[in-house]
Write a structure and sequence with these properties.
Keywords: Cell membrane, Glycosyltransferase, Membrane, Transferase, Transmembrane, Transmembrane helix. The chain has helices at 2-7, 9-21, 32-47, 66-78, 83-107, 112-123, 126-134, 136-158, 163-180, 183-199, 206-223, 225-233, 235-251, 271-277, 280-283, 290-308, 322-339, 346-364, 370-373, 379-404, 408-426, 459-465; strands at 54-55, 58-59, 451-454, 473-474, 477-478, 485-490, 505-514, 527-535. By secondary structure, it is α+β, with helices and mostly antiparallel strands. The relative contact order is 0.09.
Length: 536
């Protein structure tokens, strides 16, 4: 099986993502960032707002539209109500990151099997997976930028600018900018260039570098056309949004400089190998390609330093750091695959046994989760739980068996099997833990009575409803609908604004709509109360 996987590396990486998440990822509730993207995509289709993008009818210029265009395309084909279909583009870009890392590793002159390992490490890193849902724009901008960097590596390495690679570089840079502005240029492109210059030294004459700079400027300009158009078409709104977004960089979510220093933890199951891979004095004599290792290490550390310089900090901003970190981890994994049978010192063997032994234990005792699922385990659900428990029990047993025989390559691929099984077989169980008061707004979508809001309504609620929810509160004051009967959604019971409506309407409380799927992480903004108003 491993030989077949290594024989078709690109196909293996793609099928791994599709199998792991492509049929079950809709079990996870829609996040706030994701909902904003989905709403904008829906309004592209319903209102034809393809350039001057909107969310719930209001201007939404905070993010460029390329990811939303792609999402709208899938929504047109499969329906905007299908969360699974709307998440597929992000999954394909997740796969593209693994594939791009494979090609970049090959360009670094690493063996095919080693390059494939790097790709798989990226695809199973916690936050690279998580970013596909938490912030769907990020996976696009960094995915496109990584494609551009693969082309740039060859342009640096050869000291020439062939037409096809130059065009691809320009197109991918433009697509990255059109996905989330200059973010990836700062956190992925800039540290890549600095690390390359230190590790490999730049090749080529002055004319070559002038060409590269011209290609970069052309790509950025090409990707900036949307900003220029919106700045011209709706200058007042654009400037207001731009000022608000810019002020967030130094006044919102401000964290200390060292906030990102535990970045390696975001790699999830690869935390221990990630930490060891950063120990240059230890690994420098154990890698097969020292220059390539220096490059990935420098790329990782410089990216963390550049991120640390920005006052505004969030965990999800670390996602692009995990891209070079995956390559860095790959050097350590490749080393233990090659040499583990020859190691005897406990300080070298213990981290390996701990890393994979912990995964093996989780697999062996996954069935214990059944005690918390309790009444949900009936019928088909029980059969699915028995299946996943048996599969993970087998994987756990084989992990310990291969560890005993010091066959780390087999252990590594069993770890991938563990991740694939969790995604394909266990992820659907997330839908079983719904709290009893969960009530979606989608139940109202076929009702002909108009729905308005008083105050803010969460993006998740607007997406779940399936249509725009106009607000009665405007800059001019309270808007009085012309309909004789309509519904009002509000985040508070008996809001003050109803005092202005009491003389005109009979107000009747109908129900509370709670989109909190689990009671473990209850968010007040996902609870809305619905009233029926009838003109007196």
């Amino acid at each position: 099986m491993i030989k077949q996987i290594e024989k078709y590396p690109v196909l293996s990486l793609l099928l791994f993502v599709i199998t792991m998440l492509g049929f079950t990822i809709d079990a996870i509730p829609v996040s706030i960032m994701e909902a904003r993207n989905f709403i904008s995509a829906r309004e592209m289709l319903t209102d034809n707002h393809w350039i001057l993008t909107t969310m719930n009818g209001d201007a939404r210029y905070e993010k460029p539209p390329l990811p939303t265009w792609i999402t709208a395309g899938f929504g047109y084909l499969f329906g905007m109500g299908s969360v699974l279909a709307l998440r597929w583009p992000a999954l394909l870009f997740l796969a593209s990151i693994g594939i791009s890392i494979y090609y970049l590793s090959k360009a670094l002159e690493l063996p095919k099997a080693h390059s494939l390992i790097n790709g798989f490490i990226a695809l199973t890193s916690f936050y690279i997976i998580g970013i596909t849902i938490e912030a769907t724009w990020d996976i696009y901008t960094h995915g496109f930028m990584l494609m551009a960097l693969v082309q740039l590596f060859f342009l640096f390495k050869k000291g020439k600018t062939p037409l096809i690679r130059s065009l691809l570089f320009v197109v991918f840079i433009a697509a990255s900018v059109l996905s989330k502005g200059p973010v990836s240029l700062y956190v992925l492109f800039l540290p890549f260039v600095i690390a390359y210059g230190i590790a490999f030294k730049f090749k080529g004459n002055l004319l070559h570098f002038l060409k590269l700079i011209s290609l970069l400027v052309f790509g950025i300009t090409l990707g900036s056309w949307w900003y220029l158009y919106v700045r011209t078409a709706d200058p007042a709104t654009f400037m207001a949004i731009a000022e608000r977004e810019t002020s967030n960089w130094h006044s919102y979510n401000v964290r200390p400089f060292y906030y990102y220093w535990s970045f390696f933890v975001q790699s999830g199951i690869w935390t221990v190998p990630a930490l060891i891979s950063l120990c240059y004095p230890y690994l420098k004599t154990r890698v097969t390609n020292l220059k390539a290792y220096r490059f990935s290490l420098l790329w990782t550390l410089i990216a963390v330093i550049l991120l640390s310089l920005i006052p505004e900090k969030k965990s999800r901003y670390l996602m692009p750091v995990l891209i070079p970190l995956a390559i860095n981890i790959g050097f350590y994994v490749n080393y233990i695959i090659r040499e583990f049978k020859n190691l005897s010192a406990k300080k070298e063997t213990f981290p390996v046994y701990f890393q994979f032994g912990l995964i093996g234990l989780i697999a062996l005792f996954f069935w214990c989760i059944g005690f918390s699922l309790g009444p949900f385990l009936t019928g088909v659900v029980l059969l699915r739980f028995i299946l996943i428990s048996a599969v993970l029990l087998l994987i756990g047993f084989l992990i310990f068996k291969t560890l005993k025989h010091k066959n780390i390559k087999a252990t590594f691929y069993l770890t991938l099997s563990f991740m694939l099984s969790i995604g394909f077989l266990a992820l659907p169980f997330a839908q079983l833990q719904g709290q009893p008061s969960y009530l979606p707004l989608s139940q109202l979508s076929n009702d002909t009575i108009p729905l308005y809001s008083l105050g803010s309504v969460s993006p998740e609620a607007i997406y779940n409803y399936g249509e725009k929810i106009p607000s009665l509160k405007t800059e001019e004051g309270l808007m009085i609908p012309s309909e004789k009967t309509f519904r009002v959604l509000t985040s508070s019971l008996n809001p003050e604004a109803f005092k202005e409506l009491n003389s005109l309407f009979t107000i009747e409380f109908k129900d509370s709509y709670d989109l909190n799927f689990s009671s473990n992480n209850h968010r007040a903004r996902l609870v809305n109360h619905m009233y029926l108003l009838t003109r007196k």
